[in-house]
Amino acid sequence: MSEPGQQVTRETVAVGEARVSYLEAGPADGGPIVFLHGMPASAELWRGVLGEVGDAGYRALAPDLPGYGGTRLPAGGDHSLAGAADLVAEWIESAGLRSAGRDLWLVGHDLGGAVAQILVGWRPELIGRLTLGDTVVRDGWPVAPVRLFRAVARLGLYPALAVSGLVPNPYARHELAKGFARPERLDEGTAERVFWDGKVTTAEGRGAFARHLQALDPEQTVDAARRLHRFHGPCLLLWGEKDRFLPVHREAAELRQLLPGADLEVLPDAGHFAPLERPAAWARSLLSWGEGVRSAPR
To answer: Distance between CA 98 and CA 93 in Å, rounded?
Structure first.
């Protein structure tokens, strides 16, 4: 697996009463692209992709969503997917990412793709173009490991299990490895950095992740699917060929019905966590499509 790009930096800003932690790469005056991670990752999922995209001249940003990484909500904050969409929209506006009439490009993976769908359904004017990769649609989720974690959290047991060392466990590690076309590409150090981080190692992180698990509700993505017709910008579906959790023949096909005209590209030799497994190839596919959209008549 590629080493994390040294040109990627981490910043933390206040957005209302929340604190948003995000990774950033590329020139400050580059065209902005916002990358949203899914479960159980953090913004670290995108580190390799951000380096490639930043080198291409874009301003690439990836926030930790609520319940993950360093982002924190105030007491009583909304840790659901819809709450994450609200926070991302507020952050986009407060950071001036749509200034000077520049289109904002939104990219979402897995549950980050769900957040992206909610955002473009409710606030389509914020987004110029959209990319969804290996993402959920309607109520075809959660997959079995997420259902298990959600049940544990709703019983109030997640923090205690994480403290006891039962998270991560062999089952969780095995399920994560299934997200790769070649499981040997996921080493323990990368798994710790991307997938477990503070949601296991700190009390604040364990509590935030538990609240997020408790708030997960497929009805929010069902509602998002009803609103996707409100988005009229260019859209790319970028999928790992060997995604065993959200296979291209099912979820991507369903999204193409909801987003008529969306382009589909399938990345070979990649599984569900394609942006982590093959970051350079994933970024090349993304940028190639983006250049085609830029040169096409509007």
So the answer is: 7
